[in-house]
Amino acid sequence: MTLLVTASTPQKAAPLVAALVACGVPAERVRTMLPEDRSEARRLAAGASGLVMGGGPDLDPSYYGEEPVPGAHLAVLPERDELDWEAFAGAREARVPVWGVCRGMQVINVALGGTLWQDLPSQLAGSLLHDLDHPDDALIHGVEVTDAGTPTGAILARELALVNSRHHQGVRRLAPGLVTVGRSPDALIEAVELSDRGWWLRAVQWHPENLVAMAQQRALWDEFLAAAEEFAGRRPGDRDGGGRRADRTGGDQPAGRDDRRSATVPAGDPP
């Protein structure tokens, strides 16, 4: 079994890798993909057993057909955008299990046809504090489960879900095929799943890699690992870091950046 983690730097990848190791994954089975690996990202993701899309800088709004909003104070890294876009495309083609964290959830939503709030404080009236950098495990708001019938919803409904938060953007229009599992008290989408049970894809807006000591948050990682192990079992070569690339192309590819213009919604619309 080989797991891939996307991140901007080795330092940013470290907590994600540590969470996987804490859940019993041998460190040698985890590979970090950085922006300089973007040319190989699609191939590597298609051949992996699981993909973790980690947090990072803002996604360029051109990916969802928008210009930067004045005052949004965007910090973009084009090479990271390319990395995540290609990695997700490879995972999508092969139906590799995908676990999105913070920015990862936002990229997934856009890749599937959704849009983002570019800056919550300036665009979403009454929004809570969603950006507390330190300490990493500070629990600053709750998550209300909106669909306890989903696997993620069932985990979050076991007890009061309290989470950390380090972001100023969020899902605005949910992509087709995604199901809202949880929201913060200001109604921002905090957890999603793919309705297609033929492809394991789940994502959260917070940082569960910093909360793996909590049983509820550990369970989210365990679910991802169970899916990756099951997937690897169907592709035995993955156990040795290889694996065959499944022949799933055509309509499974994300739309091109220009095609995403249709996903734009006017500023001020409700989420």
Task: State the main characteristics.
271 residues, alpha/beta, Rossmann fold, 28% helix
Care to count the β-strands?
A: 12
Shape: globular
Helix run count = 7
Q: How many individual domains?
A: 1
> CATH class, anyone?
Alpha Beta
Span between termini: 38 Å
The name CATH uses for the topology is Rossmann fold
Low-confidence stretches: 239-271
Question: Architecture, according to CATH?
Answer: 3-Layer(aba) Sandwich
CATH superfamily: Class I glutamine amidotransferase (GATase) domain
Quick one: biggest sheet? 8 strands, mixed
Radius of gyration: 17 Å
Strand content: 15-25%
Could you give the order of the helices and strands?
Answer: EHEHEHEHEHEEHEEEEEH
Q: Major sheet: order of its strands?
A: 2-1-3-4-12-11-10-7
Which structural class do the helices and strands define?
alpha/beta
- Into which percent range does the helicity of residues fall? 25-40%
Q: What value does the average pLDDT take?
A: 86
